[in-house]
Amino acid sequence: EVLEILDNCVSCKACKSECPSNVDMARYKAEFLQHHYDVCGVPLKALLVANLSRIQRWGMYLPSLYNVFISNPLTGGLLKKLLRFAPERSIPKLYKTTLRHWATRHRSCNKDTTRGKIYLFADEFTDYMDVRVGIRMIELLSGLGYEVVIPEHVESGRTALSKGLLKEAKKIARKNVVLLKDIVTDENPLVGIEPSCILSFRDEYPDLVGDDLKAEASSLGKNCLLYDEFIVREIRKGNIRSGQFTRKPLKILLHGHCHQKSLASVEPSKIMLSLPENYEVEVIPSGCCGMAGAFGYEKKHYELSMKIGEQVLFPAIRNADEGVCISAPGTSCRQQIKDGTGRTALHPIEVLFQAWQETEG
Predict the structure, then answer these.
(1) Residue among 9, 5, 13 at smallest CA distance from 330
(2) Quick count: other Cβ atoms within 10 Å of Cβ 135?
(3) Residue 341: CB partners within 8 Å, gap ≥ 6?
């Protein structure tokens, strides 16, 4: 009965910040699922989703073949049946190269820096699928005078956490803490692009790694920043200025990520996108977009997923003029917006990069 009830929890973590009791049901759900798996075994679909980064790592050997396989009606349809995904959904494709590989070949981007060094967390979504966003992040910060380095680390463990595979997530968290604890500092923070991944360092990691690494994980988490938190920090220091960006007008509708709303704030994204002096930013008063990672992909949740989107998010976007820019930091959110409205949403970093590029050009 508990399993059936928790099945409709989208793990948005809104309860952690909005409920007067501040109960983190997403964490309870993950804990319950691990105990359930210990007794009943792990379903194949949960294993596949939890190991998404490993599957994509193998797929990067032949990304074109991987993309043909998942997009072909026959083979892609069989894969969706195996995963129990809704046929209406399209499985995300791989980019032609990884962000790490691109960064290695474009180290010249990091020359002649004057503002200091940051470490970029190449999460499992940005490293394989949303590589363009990662490239824009590196190009933008390098152009603004920062040295951007991708340190040695493994995936965030977000997919394992979402499916309740806490033992696997613990191994991943411990690896990351050991690899990063001695290099990440307040002066040289770890900056992330995908909110759910970088915020794992601040939220789950300290309680996940074990007593022997708890202090190190907590210290590391304090220096793990979302893309907008870092940029706003530098704006306030005077290192990033309005004059470095376009003066052309643009209206932006911003949809914040659930974990960003619960564990951090959408306000830094609004401040960041308002830096170009003629940019007007409106935050959509939406809750969860409805996709919530793999939740909205699953056939049994598809209808509920779309109903959640129809509450506020989809109508707000449909009612927006074509010239209005739609922005959302979450990879799942952008996919949900595309499926629900047909509009393409940009990551806030892409929006700011375009504003900077127009000035540079």
Answers:
(1) 13
(2) 21
(3) 314, 317, 318
Token code pair at residue 24 = 């983190």
This prediction's pTM:
0.95
Instruction: Tell me which H or E stretch contains 49.
Output: helix 44-50
Per-residue pLDDT of the chain (361 residues; tens, 9 = 90+): 999 999 999 999 999 888 888 899 999 999 999 999 999 999 998 999 999 889 999 999 999 999 999 999 999 999 999 889 999 999 999 999 999 999 998 875 555 667 899 999 999 999 999 999 999 999 999 999 999 999 999 999 999 999 999 999 999 999 999 999 999 999 999 999 999 999 999 999 999 999 999 999 999 999 999 999 999 999 999 999 999 999 999 999 999 999 999 999 999 999 999 999 999 999 999 999 999 989 999 999 999 999 999 999 999 999 999 999 999 999 999 999 999 999 999 999 999 999 999 886 5
> What is the number of other CB atoms lying within 10 angstroms of the CB of residue 169?
26
Nearest-angstrom CA–CA distance, 316 and 307? 14
Joined tokens for residue 272: 């960041």
Cα distance between residue 222 and residue 230, in whole Å: 12
